[in-house]
Amino acid sequence: MSVKFGLLALFADGPKYGYQLRTEFEARTGGTWPVNVGQIYTTLERLERDGLVAAEGTNDEGRVVYGMTEPGRAALDTWFSTPVADTDRPRNELAIKLLMAATTPGVDVTSVVRRQRTESVRLMRDYTTLRRAADEVDDVAGVLLLDSLVFALEGEVRWLDHVESTVLRRGGRLPAPTRSRRAARPTERHAR
Amino acid sequence: MSVKFGLLALFADGPKYGYQLRTEFEARTGGTWPVNVGQIYTTLERLERDGLVAAEGTNDEGRVVYGMTEPGRAALDTWFSTPVADTDRPRNELAIKLLMAATTPGVDVTSVVRRQRTESVRLMRDYTTLRRAADEVDDVAGVLLLDSLVFALEGEVRWLDHVESTVLRRGGRLPAPTRSRRAARPTERHAR
DNA sequence: CGACACATGTAACACGTTACATGATTTG
DNA sequence: CAAATCATGTAACGTGTTACATGTGTCG
Question: What is the pLDDT of residues A143-177, one digit of tens each?
């Protein structure tokens, strides 16, 4: 939903035409996370299909401009006022990978963890550099975005270390849990 | 790719039949992240289509069992030995939402942040409780999984606070960056 | 018996994403 | 002029995910 609502949000300050959305989307997210232009048009089409935006005629240059509809406005408000729930979050690929590695016979978990750690730290360094650059251009949005990435990576590295030490303490391998009773989720799982 | 490779990994210790994959997948990830059974079969079908697993006959109960093929084995090894890169990571919906909120006129960013903070903290509490439960049953995998969620949420809350103070310092609104030059990504964006 | 877990599938959809075709306009 | 950017689209694919149909076996 990120791209979809991200684009929708752009219509909050007036009608836009297709290509414009790309530029603005990337600008507002600080240039990190480029969007393939094609995706703009597909997403726009789907927004239109769902009645959240509608063509509103052509502007001076003859481009077809789209504007937010009432339902669109409502959907956007809902998006903003509804927190991201746990069920909305994508499965964490790294966590799955590591757990599988730790419970799969013949896999050297420690190597997997270390390789990931190197990569994660490298990424953190890169993002920090970019952050400094964004800061110098007073790109506040870009700085915040990069901060979020760095914060997430810090947690990731902490977790990696935690996993490594846990696994080592257990002799390099975790027991594949046998028929353990499933714990209930904190909230019900609804449509994603 | 999480579910796909997650299932593939289950074949590392011998052939399995469909339904079995569901139980084992959930067990190995500590019961958090349930999988709709239907998805097991669709994913299995796709794994077979791609030649990573193959039907290997029937077991005692007459169930069709699948096994990992050589290409499958290779794909799994690659998955384990290749760190998750930045380009593999899904866009962070929360980050996009907040940046959009902060640059969209008429949106009360602080409310958005606070609501999310409440929800994130609540989630953290829930996960911590579940963690304790998993710990008591010696479900190591489950504990680690929940740790990863908690670590991530800690970073998220830190970031939320950071955003709130940044936005407040700027008078409750961020400037929509105008035509800022796009920063290059640390690594090239390749197929996701 | 009836509820429930076990079990197998299929059809359909949403989103994200890319590759490709095609043309106008700008600029070094 | 040639290259780059602006601009619009479409076809196609991959993965995640659900809803639904359908049947067997087990246990209180």
Answer: 999 999 999 999 999 999 999 999 999 888 887 66
**Is residue A55 a contact partner of residue A65, using CB atoms and an 8 Å limit?**
yes
Q: How far apart are CA A34 and CA A30, in angstroms?
A: 9
Is the per-residue pLDDT at B105 higher than 60? yes
Q: Which tens digits make up the pLDDT trace of B27-74?
A: 998 888 889 999 999 999 999 999 999 999 998 888 999 999 999 999
Is A79 in Cβ contact with B97 (below 8 Å)?
Answer: yes
How many angstroms separate the CA atoms of A101 and B113, rounded? 36
Interface touch B176/A92, C-beta < 8 Å: no
Distance CA(B46)–CA(B48), nearest Å, equals 5
Contact B159 A147 (CB under 8 A): yes
* Residues sharing a CB contact under 8 Å with residue B73, sequence separation 6 or more, in sequence order: none
Q: A64 beta carbon < 7 A from strand D?
A: yes
Per residue in A59-69, pLDDT (tens digit) is 888 899 999 99
User: Which residues have C-beta within 8 Å of that of residue B117, sequence separation ≥ 6?
Assistant: B157, B160, B161, B164
Neighbours of A123 (CB within 10 A): 23
Paired strand residues for A31? none
Query: What is the spatial distance, in angstroms and rounded to an integer, between the CA atom of B148 and the C1' atom of D15?
Result: 23
> Shortest Cα distance from A179 to chain B (angstroms)?
7
Of B26, B102, B152, the CB nearest to A155: B152
For residue A129, count other CB atoms closer than 10 A to its CB. 13
The answer to whether A30 and A139 are in contact (CB under 8 A) is: yes
Query: Which residues, including other chains, have CB under 8 Å from residue B46's CB and lie 6 or more apart?
Result: B4
CA-closest candidate to residue B48, choices B7, B96, B106: B7
**What three-state secondary structure class fits A35?**
coil
**Cα B2 to Cα B175: distance, rounded to the nearest angstrom:** 37
Asked if strand C contacts B24 at the CB level, meaning under 7 A, the answer is no
Which residues in chain B have their CB less than 8 angstroms from residue A179's CB? 23, 27
Tell me the pTM: 0.90
User: Taking 90 as the threshold, does the pLDDT of residue B99 lie above it?
Assistant: yes
